Model the fold of this input.
Amino acid sequence: MSLEPLVACCASSGPSSFSCTLPLILCLLLLFTRVWADDELAAANHTSCQAMVAGAFFFSLMALIVKLLNKFGTYELVFWRSVFMFAGSMSILGAKRINPLGPPGSRVLLSMRAAGGFGLTSGYYYAVHHLPLGDAVAITYTNPVITAVAAALLLGEA
Done:
């Protein structure tokens, strides 16, 4: 598989093309930095870092695929992503014999989470469609900062 489409998409964002490589640099630093004292903890953290790198790779691949599928509408792509996620989730829940509706006391929260996930996925796909890929990814990586500020303001967490 050629990396030329990814490089072209990142390069097309002009001055913000650095934002396309920033997550990769941070993940590689985490992956190769060994600052843990305990070997067992070091192995667990190394595995966690590998999972983060894999997750970042697959989310970047998803963004690239969404960008390249510009013939399709945002909601059409969200629909097909939801169909595949639903099939995968149902197979895992069925294998573990877990009720897909969740516990009776948490169904309202799960419904709110589903509606929020739909809205955020739609917004992300819309951004990837209409912004340069580097800008859309950079905006997405501001989520932890926004969450921390919201937790401090709304929940009083420090």
